[in-house]
Amino acid sequence: MVLLAAAVTTKAGKAIISRQFVEMSRAHVEGLLAAFPKLLGGEGKQHTFVETESVRYETESVRYVYQPLEKLFALLVTSRNSNILEDLETLRLFSRLIPEYCKNMDEQDIIDNAFNLIFAFDEIIALGYRESFSD
């Protein structure tokens, strides 16, 4: 799996924090994150991912893997050819991690704990690939 970026966004698509795991420009990351809410469509979706042909990272299509967190989204942007099961497991790990640092789960709480979250994200992912841990 190549994880391009991890982010916490509002339901409207505003990025609160974002961490890129591969080299890309800020404008490109903002473009990827801005495209996400437009792809979601209406409420009540059964899926936790959206694939797209129109938004590309270099020459690859991307996949948005997301999980609602109260008024926010935990969002991973991956390459489309990545393993969806690994993507979902990584998303679950990110989603369990966020409430550990942010008890209120609101925008201000995410901002206040941004550095702790970014460092925790870095513990999970290295160079776009998930770190393997032994129990």
From TrEMBL:
The keyword Lipoprotein does not apply. It is a peripheral membrane protein. Residues 10-128 form the AP complex mu/sigma subunit domain. The keyword Transcription regulation does not apply. One of its GO terms (biological process) is protein transport. It is found in: Cytoplasm; Cytoplasmic vesicle, COPI-coated vesicle membrane; Golgi apparatus membrane. The coatomer is a cytosolic protein complex that binds to dilysine motifs and reversibly associates with Golgi non-clathrin-coated vesicles, which further mediate biosynthetic protein transport from the ER, via the Golgi up to the trans Golgi network. Coatomer complex is required for budding from Golgi membranes, and is essential for the retrograde Golgi-to-ER transport of dilysine-tagged proteins. This is Coatomer subunit delta.
